[in-house]
Design goal:
The protein has 24 helices and 23 strands. The chain is of the alpha/beta class. It is globular. Belongs to the helicase family. RecG subfamily.
Length: about 725
Amino acid sequence: MDILNTEIQFLPGVGPKRAALLAKELGIITYNDMLHTFPFRYVDRTNIQNIAEIVPTMAYVQIKGTVTAKNIVGEHRKSRLVVTVRDNTGSMELVFFQAIKWMNDKIRIGDEYIIFGKPSAFNGIINMVHPELESPSGKALPYGSSLIGVYPSTEKLKKAGITNKVFTKLMASLLSIAGNRIQENIPDYLISRCGLIPRKEALKSIHFPSGQAALEKASRRLKFEELFFLQLSLLKQRYVRMHEGEGIRMPAVGADFNRCYKALPFDLTGAQKRVIREIRDDMKSGRQMNRLLQGDVGSGKTLVALMSALIAIGNGFQACIMAPTEVLAQQHFNNLKKYLAPLSPVDWTETEADGGFGIALLTGSSKAKQRRMIDRGLRDGMIKLIVGTHALIEDNVVFRSLGLAVIDEQHRFGVDQRSRLWNKTGGGTPPHILVMTATPIPRTLAMTLYGDLEVSVIDELPPGRKPVKTIHATETKRAAMYNFIREQIALGRQVFIVYPLIFESEKMDYANLEKGYEAVTEAFPFPKYRTAIVHGKQSNEEKSSNMKAFADGRADILVATSVIEVGVDVPNATVMVIESAERFGLSQLHQLRGRVGRGSQNSYCILMTDFKISRESKKRIDLMCSTEDGFILAEEDMKMRGPGDIEGTMQSGMPVDLKIASLGRDGSLLEFARKTAREVLSTDPHLEMESNSLLLRSLASYREVPTDYSKIS
């Protein structure tokens, strides 16, 4: 047995209780998990700061001071130990709420200590809560390290005595037991070609670096390793699909495509035409299409999806379009019916028919009778195009001949869910896959999220679309903002007012929304003004009913949470007010802004914030006011906040869990790793050569249960 698979409870100093806590708090179950829990920051052990220089905003600092006083303050559970330490520049307090008696016995007045912790302030006095103390003559760190790693932690771990100091000791113990058993996972020829240090050395140095140069070499090796195997996996899958994967050949365009295209009341943009050509080339190639369509809000992706579906239908196949919410699915269905008018479509959601161009809508709210009709229409091929939600991937939904699956806002669906659409062809040739997103994705992230997909970008908005004027306002401007809304409503326009929803405090946000709704209805009283409300706690029917009232013009104002971020299309809505805008990320703000400006009138986005906001929030708000380019905003968002949720979402469907590499910060290393992976596969696409046998084994080990997603978006 590989020693690194040993359960962490057997590491000296851990035991069952601590093991359970490490598993729950940090996901550490085995020696290997612990070895790959990396410091997120390092403190130079040789760098001692003066107490007079310390301010509460600093990160972890290290001081050397002599204890001049100590005192247990308070009684029973509310007691705390307060220790005063002094150096030749000033004094500060150390505060302990746990193990008070033990700490009081251990710390002696007159002794000097090296103190490591996070400074804070209480009643204007600088202090450190639960810092780590050791004698200046204490034991040196292992492997000649001069840097102390600061590891991820939680309050529960600290309360259980697993401080950073204890964690560091456990790591040293682990390396002394298992360090020499660390196996290499990259062949020698690549280590040499890429200028990497051995894996064993890298893992020792990342935890106990002898200095900055050693840390940088270790970091580069471990980051490269993660990014390289990620790209190797994606590119290998892509090779298999492009060179060996069979796809449905669709040589014709078909009469339905031509009739709809000629009847469009407007010209397609050059970008839309280019993308349709790219999709058409894929569909007639004989290989399975697996293409990502990126397009900013309002760029016309739905129409491209329809024209692609008509190509499949023109070749005798069925097509489906899957959306993440019922509201969006309903909206797509209504829009597609308009575009399909020249074909006199038959709506199988309402009636069965033995001829004509059958279409249907299937969601969780579809009635049993509708489901029976839709089931018959799909099985016998009378329904040519179906729009739906997750309901489409249920086992009882059976197509006669699915040729194209379009997945909208694909990041809302897990890869396993999407794979079920692939199996809808009954084990035969898989359908062509087109995934769409209105969330602009930075290039380095797209390279990883969609490294095995071909990518099309609609980088042009339809003519006549006016830019949305974006304004930043604080509470002092609320009265003026309300007056502006009244003017817009008097002109016959409609208004969105959006409140943030942050899941950690759903109750508070719900109360916030309710309060906001009350304030809005007070400022805009019925019957002169009609206000609807939409939020996640409503039933689907209630949500759809209120959204429909707004979309149909029966409500002037829609008060909502960011549930309306994706998909709601109301051309008459010209004002988007975003309350507490500082609580949203750039991409989300951009998505919300995209809900207005869909008609020919002037449109406005008003970003309401507190008067005092952080520097980073101010930068986000200023960027929103300065550009409407979603790709510029996405790049800036990733620079400012890191890949964040997108990277987290990506992890669930990717073969490599990124522990140290960052898609936001390590873009150039990612490109180098991708180039290296491509070079390896260009001569050995199946990794069959003896020199690559180690790569094949290492790649297989990244998934305990390998799943072949090579044909799935």
